[in-house]
Amino acid sequence: MTVPSPQHIPSLAGVPRDISGDDLLDGLRSTLLAIKRSQAALLKARGISFTEWTALQLCAAAPARLGELAERIGLTPAGVTDLIDRLESRHLLRRAQDPEDRRAIRVALTPPGERLWSGTRDTLRGTVRRWMDQLTPEERAGLARGLAGLERVHAPPEGSETP
Fold it and tell me: Is residue 55 included in any domain, yes or no?
């Protein structure tokens, strides 16, 4: 699978130098959706949904609280409980008491969950790497500059927590 070329994104066809912010936003959304769809298809072939993989991803660095997972994934508390139940029944995640708050539960990867997450992460990274390799050096440089610009304007002012 490949990322759609600008010709396949109507708002970016031809990419004029004076492209509007709205057109850039439409193109960005279209491209991100195409990437997500292709990644979801790769994950489905491995027997895991994009949402399930996201839960594994969020627990990979350190065990996470259920409320944190619900907020970051965009699920209700009941929805994240169902998600964790499914992953736990497949022995990919396990629940444990939070050592800092005995009332709270943290969710951690199990060894099979770690193997699935690591393998799928490497597959997804390899796919994105192949897409990036198809870009010209100028396109990669332009993408890097654009991302740096977005990061700069989105960064919270010094001493502030929100942009």
Answer: yes
Name the token pair of 33.
Answer: 């959706």
Question: Which residue range(s) make up the domain with 56?
Answer: 46-134
* Amino acid identity at 6: P
Residue 29 lies in a domain: no
Look up tokens 């005995």; give the residue: 102
Q: Backbone dihedral region of 47: left (phi > 0), alpha (psi from -120 to 50 degrees) or beta?
A: left
- Residue 128 belongs to a domain: yes
Pairwise CA distance, residues 85 & 83, whole Å:
5
pLDDT average, residue stretch 20-41:
87
Token pair for residue 71? Answer: 């907020």
Closest residue by Cα to residue 110 from 83, 92, 86, 89: 92
pTM for the full predicted model: 0.74
For residues 155 and 149, give the distance between their C-alpha atoms in angstroms, rounded to a whole number.
Answer: 10
What pLDDT score does 99 carry?
85
The encoded tokens of residue 160 equal 């502030």
How far apart (Å, rounded) are the C-alpha atoms in residues 74 and 97?
23
Query: Count of domains in the chain?
Result: 1
Which domain CATH number covers 77?
Answer: 1.10.10.10
